[in-house]
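User: what does the whole thing look like in 3D?
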Amino acid sequence: MNLAIRDVKYRLGRFILTAIGVGLLLATVMAMGGIYRGMVEDALSIVRAPGADIWVVQKDTNGPFAETSRIPDDLYRVMRAVPGVREASPIAFQSLQLDYGEISIRAQIIGYRPGNLGAPPAVAAGRPLVASRYEMVIDRKAGIPLGARLPIGRMSFVVVGLTEGIVSSSGDSTAYVSLQDAQELQFLKANETVRNERARLEDDLKANPTLAGLPAASLTSITQNSNLANAILLRLEPWAESTDVARRIERWNHYRAMTTAEQEEVLAGNVIERARQQIMLFRIILLIVSTVIIALIIFTMTMEKTRDIATLKIIGAPNLKIGSLIMQESLSLGLLGYLFGALLINLTYDYFPRRVAVLAFDQYVLFGIVMVICVLASLVGIHRALAIDPTTAMGGGA
Amino acid sequence: MAAVAAQNVSKIFGQGDSQVIALKDADLSIEAGEIVALMGPSGSGKTTLLRALSLIDPPTSGQIAIDNQLVFDGARVLTDDRKLRRQRMGIIFQAYNLIPFLTTLENVALVLTLNGISNRQALTRARELLMSLDLGHRAGIYPATLSGGEQQRVAVARAVINDPAVILADEPTAALDTERGKAVMELLRNLGRTQHAAVIVVTHDERMIEGFDRVYHMTDGRITNH
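Assistant: Here's the predicted 3D structure for the full assembly of 624 residues, as structure tokens:
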């Protein structure tokens, strides 16, 4: 006769409510795990999206995500000549505020040469960039529809395509535009700024006897140069070894060349490391809180059965029977709570503002942890149950 | 040989100045099929003796034999006194102490399953016993919905289902009115005789005195006469 099943059946309503409470707590643990995974996936998605093997960035920097990197956009021509390089193309990144009607979002603008490296891996709706100017492919998460017209700075873009699941390390939507558009957004200065800088340059030229008389406007191509990129993406020949090619570029071309794996390491290890640690710590704290709460629930459930347990001892129930009653109830509570939590998180993770990556592996591991927690929690109850004096069941007479 | 034999059984609580002698050199011997009462005022040691005999709270000294087996000889003889209780004893409580999350039928069958009998057999035997006690119609309900008299009859059924050598009842009629108390006592007497078990009933209710083979009187921890 299974006492745990009968006890649960008898107090079914309360047991289910308690399990729902535990489930909500476990759903929070799962959400934190999903946010943790999502943060890593988000951070890596932007590195993986272009499908590059090597990222060439400014020397002595960890660009373009962890640090600023500026390099000439025509460097890709040089890179093409490096043995083992099959494709090379410049790419530019910039964070911007986009306003579309009521929608106001932060977006990571990615500029690339249409038809070359740097394009989104897939377009879920619409088409990729075709024209060299004023077109945009934006992530669906931004909530901006196909065909929408978006004014940015002095330009106006038409949304021609939508991607899915490509976001920046901070979870912002990505928006792909042509390299030239991105360069102008990033590097082209406003008219007033150009005028002020030109006036300042003219003063500097006058003050320098060797340059005196040189018109400032003649230096515009130098001072107003927008032919810059944040990185050059390289795709290698199948036979080429990425680390060898990267070391060769660093040695002979004086740029920093990072393999995609190194770029991922920089992002995961530096850019989001503290946030990751924070979430991991919070997750551990939640698990400890869950352990304490489940232990308290089991302890309380055991306390409520003090008289029944004492009676069981008097009529001869062995400790194993009493212990298994408590442990089975604890495991049932954990199992039901876990199922409720898993159901809840699987139904709702899509509605979180940032990506929540609920992985089957993580759920299996958490299930194992919950079962261990329940066993540990039940030990508290079992300890209490075994300490119950059987005379508690009898009257207080002497 | 006696079904229950106790010799020089004493129980002392506390130590030094706070020492309380709850039971002093109690001797008793009850044959199988015999029904005896332990009577006395509150604090006289009746329940202490019952707890000692069942080894729920073993005595400090003395000897106890149950069903011809020495179970206490100045110290515990058995390694598992619960086995003794579930196999050879039936215990009835003043407050019935039915397990609230088990149905009437399951409460009665529980002792059998604890003794290794299969659920199906245990439930069948429990149902037969409840039917014989006119409680068959209450088999599927929880104890909380039973009247006090019904609960105590179910408790009696639980105590006798394993054919015990000894039935120990602690104030079984204290929470019942006279009529229901007498009915429970009648049931206990009949079952004790039918099953050839030694029945010891702790009571201070003089109304229930009829029908006992012997009555032990207790005062200040001593058995004064029988």
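In plain terms: The mean pLDDT of chain A is 87. The first helix of chain A runs from residue 3 to 10.
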